[in-house]
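So, can you check what follows?
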Amino acid sequence: MSRDIQVAFDAHDPRALSTFWRDALGYVHPGPPGVELPEGADPLAAWDDFLARIGVPEDQRNTRSAVEAPDGRGPRLFFQQVPEDKVAKNRVHLDVRAAPGLQGEERMAALEAECARLVALGAARVRRDEPAPPMSEGFIVMTDPEGNEFCLD
């Protein structure tokens, strides 16, 4: 039997990092437990209200955040605040499938377009690896706003 997974990120600013990944992947922030959000409501504002209502001190309200696939098909991403800096290359990274079914220049053009969109959201481009068939179709290495490496694949 297969298992569902959650990918956890250590972060200095869980809310900001979760917002980046929400926008990068087309995910959503879930609402607080037991809170039914009306259509178009801001889940982060709902979390602010919820945390204030249950007495969480303001300086502790950005210690964790999460995003989920709106259709429930992808893994949940969880962001937890940690005091230490990232000091080395992460040992696990995400491959964001930004050009499914495309090959050659068409694939690389799609990856470049997605790279530009993510840079505008706060990511940084590290390098482009050209296609090298049959082992690689080409990819772009990037980092998120807190320096976590990922690939556009």
Observations:
- The chain has a mean pLDDT of 94.
